[in-house]
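Quick review question:
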């Protein structure tokens, strides 16, 4: 239980930093929506940012972190610190060379890359060219933030989570700051693009001091023959799809949405960002902490402990995401209206985005589970299984996009992504159970029934409050207060109902809090 308490404590630190990042991320997106609305300029900026951001998640936070952490953690668990640092330096050198090549190629072939991901933009004069220009400016971001992902993996393996978790806040602050310098750069979209690159510099810089304090003798050392580097290289390619299938699906969605009416691409992006407010608050935190923990357990071949950790993390994730899903579905229009409807973002943009969010929200639990179950396979250095399932899920997403795009418009890509996310998470859970034995799926199912009942109670109370005659009306200030009160009432109802149902997860959270207060470890 001590490892689970440490998981919760570490997750709490990351959650606090992530919530702060999401708050500034909302301010950033709100500022962009205010300046650009939901038209051509915002569509161009959104796609231009998504391409290096996708590569960052796949190559940096995806392949590098997921393949690097299990191997680095094994060195640490076996008390081979000197070898761990040699491995880190070899990886730093190799990744620097590879990322530099990717960045240069990305800048050169930016027009072609943009056509691949948003060919429909060519139907609007100047839209494809603007997207390519912005993409070229932002492409160095992948180099900076992928190096940042490597340093994050080292710090997380050493159970240092604070600075890496806070780093994304600096990206959001940078973009917000540069949004005020549109005149200096000749165009606000170019100012935003420069802000992204500067944010990448800051994300890397904040992690250097704790790395030096940890004892890492940072230096470049080109050694392709290092066994750790060779092992990471073998793991990286499949890891890209195993970890990044959700991001790949998002870009597939953008391609289909680029053929819909103006603002459809932006509506999908904003809807996914709102969903990530819930996803990022705890699911990302747990997934960040769980990989080093599972890697240490795998290094000692403590499979039963791994299954216990996976069960614990699964129940915690679902305990948080079920009510979040209910809230997003019920209050989707009000959330978008309060957060984004100002400036050039009008009621039509709100309706378009709320429609996409309706179909994204049910997938919240599935997307969260992927972040938990995939690291379990990687901790055991099994990369083939996740990549096979990821490929199937990706093609399923493409097929469902074709099926849903006409009747549901911008809701079609969202529903396709949700469905493929459920397939991905459920298939991996079933395979893990078949290979390594049960990790308590029956107990998880019992907990889920309680989550459903408590979430239904949340929905009833939330519906009554938000639709009370004359309450959610008037100025935006009143609407904001009422929305906050509705969320608070729904949250209180959920936890109250969970307590009445004697939810195991709520009891575990209380036990951890009591043990921390009494000074136990």
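Suggested answer, residue by residue:
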């Amino acid at each position: 239980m001590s490892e689970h308490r440490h998981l919760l404590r570490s997750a709490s630190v990351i959650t606090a930093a992530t919530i702060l990042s999401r708050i500034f991320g909302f301010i950033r997106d709100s500022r962009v929506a205010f300046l650009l609305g939901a038209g051509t300029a915002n569509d161009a900026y959104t796609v231009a940012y998504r391409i290096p951001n996708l590569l960052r998640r796949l190559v940096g936070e995806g392949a590098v972190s997921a393949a690097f952490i299990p191997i680095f953690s094994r060195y640490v668990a076996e008390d081979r610190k000197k070898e761990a640092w040699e491995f880190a330096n070899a990886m730093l050198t190799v990744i620097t060379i590879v990322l530099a090549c990717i960045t240069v190629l990305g800048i050169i072939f930016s027009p072609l890359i943009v056509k691949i991901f948003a060919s429909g933009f060519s139907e609007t004069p100047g839209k494809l060219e603007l997207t390519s220009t912005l993409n070229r400016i932002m492409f160095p971001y992948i180099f900076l933030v992928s190096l940042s992902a490597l340093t994050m993996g080292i710090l997380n393996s050493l159970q240092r989570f604070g600075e890496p978790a806070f780093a994304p806040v600096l990206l959001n602050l940078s973009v917000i700051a540069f949004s005020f310098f549109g005149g200096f750069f000749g165009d606000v979209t170019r100012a935003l693009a420069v802000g992204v690159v500067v944010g990448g510099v800051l994300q890397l810089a904040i992690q250097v001091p704790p790395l030096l304090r940890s004892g890492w003798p940072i230096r470049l050392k080109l050694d392709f023959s290092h066994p750790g580097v060779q092992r990471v290289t073998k793991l990286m390619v499949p890891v890209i799809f195993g970890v990044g299938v959700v991001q790949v699906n998002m870009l597939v969605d953008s391609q289909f949405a680029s053929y819909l009416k103006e603002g459809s691409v932006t509506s999908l992006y904003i809807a996914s960002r709102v969903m990530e407010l819930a996803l990022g608050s705890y699911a990302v935190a747990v997934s960040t902490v769980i990989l080093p923990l599972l890697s240490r357990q795998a290094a000692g071949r403590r499979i039963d402990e791994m299954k216990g950790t996976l069960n614990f993390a699964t129940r915690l994730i679902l305990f948080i995401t079920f009510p979040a899903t209910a809230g997003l579905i019920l209050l989707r229009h009000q959330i978008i209206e309060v957060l984004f409807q100002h400036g050039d973002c009008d009621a039509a943009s709100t309706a378009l985005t709320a429609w996409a969010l309706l179909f994204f929200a049910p997938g919240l639990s599935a997307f969260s589970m992927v972040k938990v179950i995939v690291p379990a396979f990687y901790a055991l250095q099994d990369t083939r299984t996740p990549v096979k399932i990821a490929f199937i899920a990706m093609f399923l997403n493409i097929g469902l996009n074709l099926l849903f795009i006409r009747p549901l418009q911008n809701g079609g890509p969202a529903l396709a992504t949700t469905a493929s996310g459920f397939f991905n998470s459920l298939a991996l859970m079933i395979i893990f159970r078949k290979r390594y034995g049960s990790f308590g799926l029956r107990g998880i199912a019992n907990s889920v029934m309680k989550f459903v009942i408590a979430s239904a109670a949340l929905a009833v109370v939330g519906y009554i409050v938000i639709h009370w005659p004359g309450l959610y009306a008037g100025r935006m200030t009143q609407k904001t207060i009422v929305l906050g009160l509705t969320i608070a009432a729904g949250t209180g109802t959920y936890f109250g109902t969970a307590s009445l149902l004697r939810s195991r997860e709520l009891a575990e959270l209380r036990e951890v809090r009591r043990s921390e207060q009494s000074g136990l470890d």
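Why it works: The two ends are 9 Å apart (CA to CA). Residues 441-521 form one domain.
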